[in-house]
UniProtKB/TrEMBL annotation:
HAMAP family: UreD
Name used for this protein in its record: Urease accessory protein UreD
Role this protein plays: Required for maturation of urease via the functional incorporation of the urease nickel metallocenter.
Family: Belongs to the UreD family.
InterPro entries attached to this UniProt entry: UreD
Record keywords: Chaperone, Cytoplasm, Nickel insertion
Compartment(s) where it occurs, according to its Swiss-Prot or TrEMBL record: Cytoplasm
Pfam families with a match to the protein in the record: UreD
Domain of life: Bacteria
Name of the coding gene: ureD
Species classification: Bacteria, Bacillati, Actinomycetota, Actinomycetes, Kitasatosporales
Length: 291
């Protein structure tokens, strides 16, 4: 499987040389060696601004596996779709997305298809860093398709989020641990969120060997799909007690709880399949807004 990948936009297996790196765009962690000559280092950037009527996109810089496409807008919001232009992430890759919604801008970002982490030409971990920034009265929604951790892969994914006191955020992440009939690779994720310069959330999770206890009854209890939904905004009611959704159900369960230092709500869900996971997160979103 070394050197084999998948097109994130179609799910089609890819093979052969990996091309598409744009040296004109600064790469992430430029001082860090890739560890293998075939590893990719790339940073794509999105910047949204509000011109008094609608949100515009003065910066849309594709790079490496990330092809950024303007989508049809609705009202004053802008939408960007990320299409996979090559196989990634593979072991040793250094990938980053830098996404900014400036004051009063409204930006939605999604991906065309699931992202598949695969074993690469080196055992070194791939890194995938998503930086999200929202200014005053801005709204930013990060809604990618699931990340699939395939057997033999090694991926460290991080979110670094910086929010103004009046900005609104909707962040959804979904992870599928292993493809059908296989064990997952090693997946480490971390979410760090600051609001108005103060810490709001700092959470780290690890799945797959050699992480201890990741599949035990206190963590996944045999489920293979896990996800979170983070909501931040001044209109949220963060004084509510936590809500447990579908307790004891075979098709998964979720908890929706307020965060200290909010107004913010965090839903965490586990499920046997990606479709059941999405249903749970959608249900948590309805509860968050009183549905």
């Amino acid at each position: 499987m070394a050197g084999e990948g998948v097109d994130m936009s179609t799910g089609t297996p890819l093979a052969g040389p990996r091309t598409g790196f744009n040296p004109g765009v600064p790469a992430v962690d430029s001082a860090e060696p890739c560890g293998h000559p075939d590893a990719v280092r790339a940073t794509a950037r999105i910047r949204a601004t509000y011109n008094g009527r609608v949100t515009t996109l003065p910066q849309l810089s594709s790079d490496g596996p990330f092809h950024l496409r303007r989508m049809r807008t609705s009202e004053k919001a802008a939408t960007v779709g990320i299409i996979g232009a090559m196989s990634a992430p593979l072991g040793g890759d250094r990938l980053a997305l830098d996404i900014t919604a400036e004051d009063r801008a409204e930006l939605d970002v999604t991906t065309a298809a699931a992202t598949l982490a695969l074993r690469g030409p080196t055992t070194a971990p791939a890194t995938y860093h998503v930086r999200l920034t929202a200014g005053e009265h801005a709204r930013l929604r990060w809604l990618p398709q699931p990340l699939i951790s395939a057997a033999g892969s090694n991926l460290h994914q991080t979110y670094t989020v910086n929010l103004a006191s009046t900005s609104r955020l909707l962040l959804r992440e979904e992870q599928i641990l292993g493809r059908a009939g296989e064990e997952p690779g090693h997946l480490v994720t971390r979410i760090r969120v600051h609001r108005a310069g103060r810490p709001l959330l700092d959470q780290r999770t690890a799945y797959g060997d050699p992480a201890p206890g990741w599949d035990g009854p206190a963590v996944l209890a045999g489920h293979r799909a896990v996800g979170q939904l983070l909501l931040v905004g001044p209109e949220l009611d963060d004084g509510r007690p936590p809500i447990l959704l579908r307790e004891g159900a075979e098709d998964g369960c979720a908890v929706l709880a307020p965060l200290a230092g909010g107004p913010a709500l965090l839903a965490t869900a586990v499920a046997p399949t990606s479709s059941a996971l999405r249903e749970l997160l959608d249900e948590a979103l309805r509860h968050a807004f009183g549905g």
